[in-house]
Amino acid sequence: MPRLTPVPLFILTFGVAVIGCGTKPAVQETGSTAGEAALRLSSAGRVPTEEKADRHIARDDGDVVMELDVYQLTVPIGGVSRNEKFWNHVDEDHVDLATHELLLKNGVRVGIGRNSEWDYFKNLIDRYGPMVRPGAVGPVRKGTLELPMRNGVEFQDIFYFNDRGTLYGRSYQKCDNCLSITYEPVPRQPGDARIGVCALIRGLRKQYEVTVLNEERDIEYKRPEYLYDLRLKQDVPQDHFLILAPSSVSAISSSLGNAFFVRPGPAEPSETVLIFVPKPFRMTGEVKSIPLIKTKPAGQSR
Q: What pTM, to 2 d.p., does this model score?
């Protein structure tokens, strides 16, 4: 295997504190990196993509892999959805306008945060209970994970606007509400991450499904699944992170934002805020036994 030298880049690292609130998310990965070492990427001294052709610099995107940490915060109702101070620290203009408007109508708000603003978000994490769900045991070229948002729902009505502005409604019984997450490096943009999010409802009771193929009948006994495509596939620049939270529309009990980002409680409901922190690495085949290398700059607490 050819030797690849690490890009001399710098990125802030984030401390990982794992606490339980449910089943550990299922993690799948595509493109095994076993037997290779991973060195962290960051943006200091980075050569812009548009300059690479002039400098005859090979892109070598195939050796860039990604980890994803998901910070899950539980805040009082209205603590984020009606808190403009929070959103002043978030760049919502970075998100495609059509996607942003569609999510708002469905009770979900999304934006990009900068590492320079991390102290503000770290204070929130420390205040509302730090939780990190690691996206993978090691860096992968493409990974998926599933986040349980509300489990054991007895009954719910959900109304959803699609990308054509049409409103659909449906009732569900005995189900779990989850988010299906995908993450991978952005092609030709080493260090940037592409994160996709879909809303998934999985029935708790199995049912028979019959399919006919070549005049043969196949009967399966499985749990039904219903997918809400949020149209959210966001490129996150290096040294940035993705924020997903309820919008003010989530106050409507039948909205998608309420179903996935608002949890009922014994006294009052609470809101869930997700912070997706991608961590890019460049693979090197120099020494197979080298563990994952993570550096913490002096004076940093994450």
A: 0.72
